[in-house]
Amino acid sequence: MTHVVSDELDLFLAHIGRTDEVGALTLVRNLLGKGVPGDEVLTDLVIPALRAVGERWATGEWTVAREHGASHVTGRVVHLIADATPRPSSASRIVVCCAQGDWHGLASTILAALLRVRGIEAMVLPPGTGAGELARMLPDSEADSVAIGCMVSTALPGARAMVEVARRVGVPVLVGGPGFGPDGRWAGMVGANGWARDARQAADMLAGPDWPTITTPAPRLRHLPDATHDGVALLRTPLVAAGMAAMVPIEDERSETTLRDGLVTAVDTLAVSLFLDDHVLFVDFTRWFADVLTHRHVPRQALAAAYRAFAARLAHVPGAGATLRMAGAVL
Ligand code: B12
Questions:
Q1: Residue 94: what are its φ and ψ, rounded to 5°?
Q2: Cis before 225? omega within 30
Q3: Looking at the whole model, is its pTM more than 0.90?
Q4: How many CB atoms lie within 10 A of CB 98?
C-alpha cells in the first residue's frame, strides 16, 4: 500500500505549497477513504512532505511565508488524521509535549497519533507549555510516562527543566526529535530515561520490560550549576548587533532577515553548547547555517566575521572563545 501513498507526495506538496487547504484535505480524505491506514499517511506522506518543506525553506526555494502556509495546511491534515485515529483502551497513558522553547507542536501531534495506533493512550500538551505547567498537571494526569519532543537544540535547557519536574514526581521521560542530536547524543545530558529514533521505537520501548514504572530524580549535570549559559543568552541583543555590524552590508532584505534571525539562533545555540559542555552542537549548527546563507548568496566569511565579533565580547566567558574558534574553522 505504501507506494499508493508516496506516489501522491508531489501532488500533496503542490497543494500545501499553494496553501490549498481544500486540495490537501481532499487528497488525504481520498486516501483514508480507500482504506489506507492513517499512520501510513503520516509516515509515508505527511512526514516526508514536512521534511521537504523544511528543505525548500533552507535552500531559499520557498519563502518563509510559503513555508508557514504549507505548515499550516499540513497541520490541518495532521489533525484530520489524528482525529480519525481510534483511541486505544490501553492501560498505558503518556503525556506528549514539546520541549519548553520549541514551537514544533505538529511533531507532538504526529507522534501522539502514531503512538495511539500502537496501543498507547497519548495526551498532547500544546507548545508553550513550560516546566511549571507540566509540574502542576502531571500529578492529576494519571500518566505513566512523559514524551518530550525537541526539533531545535536551542530548546534543550527547556527539555532539561521539564525532565527534572517529571522525574521529581517519579514519572519517567522518553525523548526524541533531531534537537537531541545525532543518535540522541544529548538525551542523557538532559536527564531523560530514554531516547527513541521514531514512534515505532518509542512504542516498543514504552511497552518493553525495561521501561521503568517509576523513576528517581534526574541525575545532576556534572558541570552545573554554572551561570555561563544564562550569561551568554542575556547578551543576545548586543551580540547580534555586533555580529550584524561586523558583516559586509547585505543588499537583499530577505537575506538580512535570515541573517539576523540566524544570528539570534547562533547566540542561543552557543549558550546551549556551553550548557551541555559540548562544542559539537555549535559546530554542527554552524555548518547548517553556513549552507542556509550560501543559498542566499551570503559568503561564509561574513559569518566568520560575526563570530569574531562575538568572541571579542565574550572574552570573559569560559569556553566561548574556543567554541567559536572551532566553529569558525568549518567556515
Ligand atoms: C513546520 C516547521 C516549523 C513550524 C512549526 C509549526 C508547528 N505547529 O509545528 C514553525 C514555522 C513554527 C517553525 C519554526 C522554526 N523552525 Co522549523 N520546521 C518545521 C518543519 C518544516 C516541520 C517540523 C515537523 O513537524 N516535522 C515532522 C516530524 C514528525 O518529523 P521528524 O523530525 O522527521 O520526526 C521523526 C523523528 O525525529 C522522531 N520524533 C520527532 N519528534 C519526536 C518526539 C519524541 C518524544 C520521540 C520519541 C520521537 C520523535 O519521530 C518522527 C517520526 O519518525 C521542519 C523540517 C523537518 N525536517 O522536520 C523545520 C525545522 C525543524 N525548523 C527549523 C528551524 C531553523 C526553525 C526556526 C529556528 C526558524 C526561525 N528562524 O524562526 C524556528 C524555531 C522555532 C522554535 N523555537 O521552535 C530547522 C531546524 C534545523 C536545525 N539545525 O536546528 C528545520 C529542520 C528546517 C530546516 N530544514 O532547516 N518550524
A1: -130, 145
A2: yes
A3: yes
A4: 29
Average pLDDT, the chain: 92
Q: How far is the CA of 156 from the centre of ligand 1 (A)?
A: 14
193 contacts 172 by C-beta, under 8 angstroms: yes
State pLDDT tens for residues 152-165. Answer: 999 999 999 999 99
Instruction: Please tell me the residue having the least CA distance from ligand 1 atom 86.
Output: 54
Q: CA–CA separation, 231 vs 226, rounded Å?
A: 9
Residue nearest to atom 39 of ligand 1 (CA): 177
173 vs 302 pLDDT, higher one: 173
What is the model's pLDDT at position 249?
A: 67
What are the C-alpha distances in Å from 163 to residues 22, 195, 206, 208, 272? 39, 12, 16, 21, 16
207 CB contacts (<8 Å, ≥6 apart)? 92, 118, 119, 120
Percent of the chain predicted with pLDDT > 90: 78
Cβ pair 75, 312 in contact under 8 A: no
Of the residues 94, 100, 104, 106, which should be mutated to test ligand 1's pocket, given the most ligand atoms within 8 Å of the CB? 104
What is the Cα–Cα distance from 295 to 1, expressed in whole angstroms?
A: 37
285-298: average pLDDT: 92
Q: Is 219 exposed, middle or buried (0-12, 13-18, 19+ CB in 10 A)?
A: exposed
For 180-194, write each residue's pLDDT tens digit: 999 999 999 999 999
On the 0-12 / 13-18 / 19+ scale of CB atoms within 10 A, 306 is buried
Q: What are the chain's domains? A: 1-84 (1.10.1240.10), 85-219 (3.40.50.280), 228-328 (no CATH)
Q: What is the pLDDT of residue 204?
A: 93
